[in-house]
């Protein structure tokens, strides 16, 4: 099992019965949050707080 090193935290909070999931990232100055959302009910299924070395100033 390979976990990208920039992934620091991952929470899986909610579950739903749909399979259609999309994900996107929100970048801050020093880190980012990656969200996985259901495209039908828009629940946040998972979010990851990460630190991307590419955006470190
Ligand atoms: Zn859903």
The total strand number stands at: 4
What's the main sheet like? Answer: 4 strands, antiparallel
- The total count of helices amounts to 0
Helix content: under 10%
Distance between the termini: 30 Å
* Strand arrangement across the biggest beta sheet: 1-4-3-2
Radius of gyration: 13 Å
What would you call the shape? elongated
- Mean of the pLDDT scores? 76
Assess the beta-strand content as a share of residues: over 45%
Ligands (ions, cofactors included): zinc ion
Overview of this protein structure:
By secondary structure, the chain is mainly β. The chain is built from no helices and 4 strands. The mean pLDDT is 76. Bound molecules: zinc ion (ZN).
A few lines on this structure:
This protein has 57 residues and is mainly β.
Which descriptors apply to this entry?
57 residues, mainly beta, 4-stranded antiparallel β-sheet, 4 strands, 47% strand, elongated, binds zinc ion
Present the secondary structure layout.
Layout: E1 7-12, E2 21-27, E3 32-38, E4 44-50
Antiparallel strand pairs: 1-4, 2-3, 3-4
Bound molecules: zinc ion (ZN).
The site of zinc ion has 6 residues, from loops.
């Amino acid at each position: 099992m390979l976990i990208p090193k920039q992934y620091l935290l991952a929470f899986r909070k909610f579950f739903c019965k749909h399979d259609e999931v999309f994900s996107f990232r929100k970048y801050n100055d020093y880190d980012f949050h990656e969200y996985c959302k259901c495209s039908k009910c828009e629940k946040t299924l998972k979010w990851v707080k990460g630190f991307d070395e590419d955006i470190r100033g």
